[in-house]
Amino acid sequence: MLESLRRLWSKGPKSTDVSSFQEWADKRGLQLKRVRDADGCTIEPTNATPETTWRMEWGDSQRSYIEGRELRLSADIGTPREMLVLVLNRELMEVMEKAVFDQYVEDVQTRIDTETPPEMRWLVMFPKLTGSELGKLKDRYAAVASVKPWLQLWLSSGLEDALAGTMEGVPSHQPVVAAIMRGRLTMRTAMAAPDPEALTRWHEVFQRIVPVARQLARDWTDASAGGATGTLRPSVWPPSRPTDDE
Fold it and tell me: 0.85 exceeded by the pTM?
């Protein structure tokens, strides 16, 4: 009996079947790896350069605002380290704002600074885009940034259309977060179990928005090299929109 128990313990918890993700990756010439000592996997291009590579991860959530498991997509895009950008579904924003408010009411500012996810802090640090500035996303999403013109240009250059195209198939309450911090774009959404259809949806969104973000990061660098600081040169600003909410 003791030997049987040893064999049972040595096996550990049963891993989730990710064969559907493996098939998805194989069809696209991508490389899937199981996560060692954890229940999850990663998917990456096989021959990408450092400038073009990206990564998908499925596994336990790394953020308290997403319960259970999440899909994460990330890529270095080259924005300045001080640039902070956040786009998220409106229902999640409302939950985050209430959590931050409740913590301040309870006089636990220290905990807010050390334990609260950075995305939650940004909501109270930076002004939100208005409904007219969000365009097609105004009823579903919210957005803030340390450099508002850059975010507006990213939205008008593909992010707005990419996210708008998912709204019919994604419930309004499902957490969807795109954040830029320290030159890296990370997109997160809830995914309790392997879902190739959802994987395709978010992979397509990511492939649309990453090249644009990288180009805008280069535009920022060029503008800074030309003497423009703290903003983008006027030639790459987004077209003006009414400033009132619609």
Answer: no
